[in-house]
Amino acid sequence: MAKAPSPRLRCAIYTRKSTDEGLDKDFNSLDAQREACAAYVMSQRHEGWVLHPDPYDDGGCTGGNMERPGLQQLLDDVKAGLVDIVVVYKVDRLTRSLTDFARIVEVLDDAGASFVSVTQEFNTTNSMGRLTLNVLLSFAQFEREVISERIRDKVAASKAKGMWMGGPVPLGYRVEHRKLIVAPEEASVVSEIMQRYLACDTVTELLAEMEQDGIVTARRAQRDGSIRGGVPFRRDGLISLLSNRIYVGEIVHKGASYRGEHEGIIDRDLFDQVQAKLASQPKPRIQSTRHRIVSMLAGMLYDDTGKPMVPTHTRNHGRRYRYYVTRPSEVGSGVATSLPAPDLEAAVRTALAGYLSDSGMLRKLASDLPTHQLAALITHAGYLADGIVSASPSDLREALQSLGFTATINRDGVSASICQSALLQGASIDADDGHRIPIEIPYTFENHGHEQRLRLDPLRSEQARLDEQLLDLLARAFNARDQLLAMDEVHASSTSATEIRHLRRIARVSYLDPVIIKSFLDGTQPRDLTSRKLWRIGTLPIAWHEQKFALGFSTN
After folding, report:
1. Is 43 known to be catalytic?
2. Record's Gene3D superfamilies (predicted)?
């Protein structure tokens, strides 16, 4: 009698690497893990094991928590009944936490799925396998805790030697070779702030003087190319600056001060006077965040005669109503403009996020930019748009200030604009012109009794699906192509073959059909076309119509 065939078991491979170092190589750690797991699955074909086609990878993700996109997608597919066996290279690739492991096992049990480690011969289908896993994960969690303790001890020892261990760079310094170096222009600003505080009665008075004189926080470039800072100081930030012992050449760790390797900016006598005055100042009454109201458009609004509009509020039956109004002293015999603040702030938020997420408008704005810079601009604007949609009022106010936002309230609508150079510089694109970008705020006035309200036009129902990772890959592709085209024989001979292969593999994306590239910029590419899928395609067709077919575009 013939033996019944083994049931078909779909095996999903999960890979993880704690850092993103080396992930851009042709064959990286994730590829090595996947190859070993795939070979193991192939060796179990007689048991009915088949490889699941979708990859589940998490590059640059810690195993100490479950906030990993690849893992979450894997668990979702397990719950949906699409996976029967989860295959990993080692148990700690899945998790280093006993608590998280218990959650994962619960998901697997509920779905009738099991778990296999390639280098540790066991699975979770029996009690002995679970016991072994728990023992191994206990060691994995212990190792993670020991590593954390070592890092904390190293930081404490380094700070005791006066070493700066990173974090936001204080105003007055720049970083060279991981050390703080005095920046003379900023250092003079710090010294001036300290001296002016001694001449002022309160921190609030100093804040007002600094804002009037245009003294702002330090502008720092971020890893994503954006610029943070350059905004007026807040009270907490100013007090932190005034009490920062870095400025007298010290490093502080858990309340203890150590002589730092860096040079101080402020004399000890001046610093001690500032600290004595801070200690003598009465502490301000702390207001609950729940009741703190931020007028995010303050200082950015003007009426149709050019007069500034300021925030104000009234109370009626215990309820607070906020408005933006023309100052009574500025009106004279004219009619003051007054608008409800929440409606206007919502209109600004919606309009600005809509503009920044509209790749078509951005392409018109920067039509003369090279493709890789245009891709960088669209990516940066997309990040801004996402942040604006969900930002708190205070964070949104900072974003508006960094973009140089202003608006004029006319009888027939709002004339708003942002600074073009601020937007371009945020994407690391040089721009020093004074051109302003008009922002359309689609609303009309409606009278409700004695009050004017704003009626917003409906939002577009369909937004472009911009993929920041695709745009980043596109920008890197054009950069790689430029490097290859500029490479002479001498340079080529001194460049490793691996690096040249890597540049060629990235650069091929820049030779895609212009229609495909345009779809990346518009966000209209096929929904399943990701940077990971594009990167893993071994050979891209030369013919444009074949490229469209291979990448899932309509060929009609």
Report:
1. yes
2. Putative Large Serine Recombinase, Chain B, Domain 2, Resolvase, N-terminal catalytic domain
Q: What is the dihedral of CA 323, 324, 329, 331, to 10 degrees?
A: -110
**Structure tokens that stand for 466 in this block:** 């911009």
| Among 2, 174, 16, residue whose Cα is nearest residue 92 | 16
Task: Say which residues have a Cβ less than 8 Å from residue 209's Cβ, sequence separation at least 6.
Answer: 196, 200
Return the structure tokens found at 174: 């720049």
Q: What's the whole-model pTM score?
A: 0.35
Predicted pLDDT of residue 86: 92
SS3 sequence of 464-513: CCCCHHHHHHHHHHHHHHHHHHHCCHHHHHHCCHHHHHHHHHHHHHHHCC
Tokens of 364: 């018109």
Please tell me which residue in 6, 43, 188, 243 is annotated as part of the active site: 43
Domain range summary for the chain, segments of one domain joined by +: 9-147, 173-284, 301-456, 468-550
- At residue 85, φ and ψ (nearest 5 deg) are -135, 135
> Which residues does the chain have with pLDDT short of 70?
1-6, 98-99, 121-148, 222-226, 282-293, 327-337, 411-412, 431-434, 442-466, 490, 554-556
Name every residue whose Cβ is closer than 8 Å to that of residue 448 and which is 6 or more positions away in sequence: none
Q: Among 153, 178, 148, which Cα is nearest to 165's? A: 178
Q: Which residue is associated with the tokens 């592709």?
A: 477
Q: What is the pLDDT of residue 311?
A: 87
Looking up tokens 């369909």 gives 462
Structural contact between residues 458 and 350, judged by C-beta atoms closer than 8 angstroms: no
Looking at domain 173-284, its CATH class is: alpha beta
Q: How many residues does the chain have?
A: 556
Q: Are 241 and 171 in contact (CB under 8 A)?
A: yes
The token pair at 462 is: 């369909």
Instruction: Quote the tokens at residue 530.
Output: 């990701």
- Per-residue pLDDT tens digits for 10-32: 999 999 988 777 777 777 888 88
